[in-house]
């Protein structure tokens, strides 16, 4: 078997293992676009079983290996070089309260309304939100329309992630 075939087999085995853990421990289904805490995976008061955590970490490692295998070196290095910009975008999102503004505007907000609500430049705000959307922090549902995801929910002003990230 080739490297990629072995990697895909390992990934499939770990996904099957995680599905078993999710079912056995009634963890709910992991979601990406659901802005609510849709499962035990996102409940800060509940730690998932070690076996489920271990399966998740193995899946994450396999996915990073797959990505590294199929990504051209110059693209990989460019992405590494842009990480500080992503961290800065995250800090801007917390500082401005983008997540809270989206919620205040009904859970989905146009870029112009968000910029107006936050008193910032629309073009620059769009770059920040789109940068974070590439990491599934926000979702661009249609051109210039954004909503929160399960990840951005933790960036609200009262969220523990927002307090932690403000230290960066």
CATH architectural name of the largest domain: Orthogonal Bundle
Count structural domains.
2
Strand content: 5-15%
Q: Ends: how far apart?
A: 44 Å
* CATH homologous superfamily heading of the largest domain: Winged helix-like DNA-binding domain superfamily/Winged helix DNA-binding domain
| Main structural class | mainly alpha
Mean pLDDT: 88
Any idea what the shape is?
globular
Find the CATH topology of the largest domain: Arc Repressor Mutant, subunit A
CA radius of gyration is 18 Å
How many helices? Answer: 8
Protein name: O-methyltransferase dimerisation domain-containing protein
GO molecular function: methyltransferase activity; protein dimerization activity
Keywords: Coiled coil, Methyltransferase, S-adenosyl-L-methionine, Transferase
InterPro entries: COMT-like (IPR016461), COMT_dimerisation (IPR012967), WH-like_DNA-bd_sf (IPR036388), WH_DNA-bd_sf (IPR036390)
């Amino acid at each position: 078997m080739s490297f990629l075939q072995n990697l895909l087999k390992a990934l499939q085995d770990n996904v099957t293992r995680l599905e078993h853990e999710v079912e056995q421990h009634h963890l709910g289904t992991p979601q990406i676009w659901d802005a609510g805490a849709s499962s035990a995976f996102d409940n800060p008061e509940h730690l998932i079983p070690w076996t489920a955590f271990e399966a998740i970490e193995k899946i994450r490692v396999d996915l990073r290996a797959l990505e590294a295998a199929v990504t051209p070196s110059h693209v990989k290095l460019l992405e590494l070089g842009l990480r500080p910009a992503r961290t800065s975008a995250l800090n801007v999102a917390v500082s401005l309260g983008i997540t809270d503004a989206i919620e205040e505007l009904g859970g989905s907000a146009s870029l112009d309304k968000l910029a107006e609500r936050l008193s910032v430049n629309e073009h620059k705000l769009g770059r920040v939100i789109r940068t974070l959307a590439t990491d599934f922090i926000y979702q661009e549902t249609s051109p210039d329309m954004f909503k929160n995801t399960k990840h951005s929910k933790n960036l609200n002003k009262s969220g523990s992630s927002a307090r932690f990230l403000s230290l960066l």
